[in-house]
Amino acid sequence: MVQAYILIQTEVGKASTVAEVIAKVPGVIQAEDVTGPYDVIVRAQAETVDALGRLVVAKVQQVDGITRTLTCPVVHL
């Protein structure tokens, strides 16, 4: 299982709505609207890195109101 944090910037005033929509996407563990340089932080998981990439591109980035994402895979050193 591969997990990642997805840092999301949204259009002004859209953070709460974006977090609510993304929280319902299969593979998303948690979605929170936050303050700072990013508006929403998501923790997601998938079976493989490729599946994680598909989750981000096909599901998360398609949510209305998102302007930019940064995916940070979790590593276990």
List the helices and strands and how they pair.
Elements: E1 2-10, H1 15-23, E2 28-33, E3 40-46, H2 49-60, E4 66-73
Antiparallel strand pairs: 1-3, 1-4, 2-3
Order of helices and strands: EHEEHE
* Relative strand content: 35-45%
Which structural class is indicated by helix and strand composition? Answer: alpha+beta
Biggest sheet strand line-up: 2-3-1-4
Measured as a percent range, the helix fraction is: 25-40%
Largest sheet: 4 strands, antiparallel
Question: In whole angstroms, how far apart are the ends?
Answer: 15 Å
Q: What is the overall silhouette?
A: globular
Give Rg in angstroms: 12 Å
What value does the average pLDDT take?
96
Pfam family, one: AsnC_trans_reg
Protein name: Lrp/AsnC ligand binding domain-containing protein
InterPro entries: Dimeric_a/b-barrel, Tscrpt_reg_AsnC/Lrp_C
Could you explain the architecture of this structure?
The chain has 77 residues and is an alpha+beta fold. The chain contains two helices and four strands, in the order E-H-E-E-H-E. Strands 2-3-1-4 form a four-stranded antiparallel β-sheet. The chain starts with a strand and ends with a strand.
